[in-house]
Amino acid sequence: MGARRSEALTLALALGALALPGCAPNPVHAPDPLPVVSWPTLLGSVRRDGHAKEPAPDSPRVAWSIGAGRGLLAPPLVAAPMLFTGTSNRMVMAFSSENGHPYWERHIDGAVGSALVAGAGMVFAASEEREGTVYALELAHGRAKWHQRVGFAAAAPLLVGDTLLVALEDRRVLALNAADGEERWSSRLPAPAATTPVPYRDLLLVAARNDSIYALTRANGRIVARAPIGGHASAPPALAGDTLYLPLEAGGIVALGLPAMARLFRAGGSAPVLAPPALGADGTVYFLDSSAELWKLPPGSASASRLASLGGAARGGLTLTASGLLVGRLDGVLTLVRLDGGTAWTTRLDGSIAAPAAVVGGAAYVPLQGGRIVKIQ
Q1: Are strands 314-321 and 183-188 parallel, antiparallel or unpaired?
Q2: Which residues of the chain register pLDDT less than 70?
Q3: Got the DSSP string for 73-111?
Q4: Do the Cβ atoms of 152 and 138 come closer than 8 Å?
Q5: First-to-final CA distance of the chain
Q6: pLDDT tens digits for range 194-241
Q7: Is 21 exposed, middle or buried (0-12, 13-18, 19+ CB in 10 A)?
Q8: What is the DSSP string of 170-202?
């Protein structure tokens, strides 16, 4: 009888522990119907303005905070009521964007240090391992519809129509059939890619680590042009019409005229720009440098001005919203800057912010480098 009482007490304590704050809740069923997700590249579009029509929170009130593994180096992908993220500890996970409850998690063969993309009912992730793999995961349960071993992913993948494009550390750019993962073509650059590819007309633009940019035909991957950048590309570029705005490690951004890829001008300061620039609806280019200086390049101008000096250090934490620019610093300070340069609000979170937040439905989903996602509403 004493043994049975001991077992019952042990079970009761275990059940009680599951209910304690901070413990992970049990997974719940994915929503029905599933959301329709179209998120083909980092920050939703080549303008890096996928959240530009979404209002930011009016105040920095924390609605919830959840653990999502370790090493969140890319923005979460939010398609309400679902949220997807990839982690450095070899996981792709799906949560409820409403309350943070987990839907599913999928262990993969390498770290996910770059953004997820989505389309056709699947989320695509590329792992950062020498023998890395690209995965196509179903939205409902995270089951792999297909996976293809390709090598170390140098940057976030790009989804163009029914083709998934992946740039690799071994200098290859691969085109895979998004439906089944079969290789359509493979092209080898003179140097590894520095950023995610950008589609332009029937071309694919890829900045490489030899301070050059290459134009490949999307149909077969053939390299048709090369141009010098005048520096090392340090973050994904933004495309507006026939102008590509490419961040530089030496500071500022360089504007390239397409399709010739001719250098038009360089704008900004001397601190590296590690965040993708974002394009406003009127053509204004906003960019953030590593010293947390926020810059504004008006349409038609070749000269940028400081919009706000936020102090500290920053990496990739820049999101353009309908309410202004949401900026995250490496010391955990999150600030909403109005487009006139004034501060709407600021708060400090318990962790470093190295990637852009996602802003959907008046809420901000902020990835912390240590592994938590914080919803501010």
Answers
A1: unpaired
A2: 1-26
A3: -S--EEETTEEEEE-TTSEEEEEETTT--EEEEEE-SSB
A4: no
A5: 52
A6: 999 999 999 999 999 999 999 999 999 999 999 999 999 999 999 999
A7: exposed
A8: TSEEEEEETTT--EEEEEE-SS-BSS--EEETT
- CA triplet 292, 297, 303: central angle to 5 degrees? 105
Other beta carbons within 10 angstroms of residue 19's beta carbon come to: 8
Return the structure tokens found at 42.
């980092």
- Radius of gyration over every alpha carbon of the chain, rounded to an integer in angstroms: 21
Query: For residue 119, what are the contacts with CB-CB under 8 A and spacing of at least 6?
Result: 37, 38, 39, 40, 159, 178
Residue type, 205: L
Residue 25 pLDDT = 53
Helical H runs in the chain? 2-18
> Rounded to an integer, what distance in angstroms lies between the CA atom of residue 134 and that of residue 128?
10
Place of tokens 């140098």: 154
**pLDDT tens, position by position, 134-182:** 999 999 999 999 999 999 999 999 999 999 999 999 999 999 999 999 9
Phi/psi of residue 225, nearest 5 degrees: -160, 155
- Beta-bridged to residue 346, according to DSSP, are 335
Q: How far is CA 187 from CA 170, 191, 220, 253, in A?
A: 11, 12, 8, 27
Structure confidence at residue 175 (pLDDT): 98
Q: Within 10 A of 62 (CB to CB), how many other CB atoms are there? A: 14
Residues in contact with 3: Cβ distance below 8 Å, sequence separation at least 6, in sequence order? none
pTM: 0.92
What are the structure tokens assigned to 212, written together? 């050059």
Residue type, 287: F
Q: Where are the domains of the chain?
A: 34-376
| CATH number for the segment(s) 34-376 | 2.130.10.10
Residues recorded for the chain: 377
**Rounded to the nearest 5°, which phi and psi values hold at 149?**
-75, 120
Amino acid at 375: K
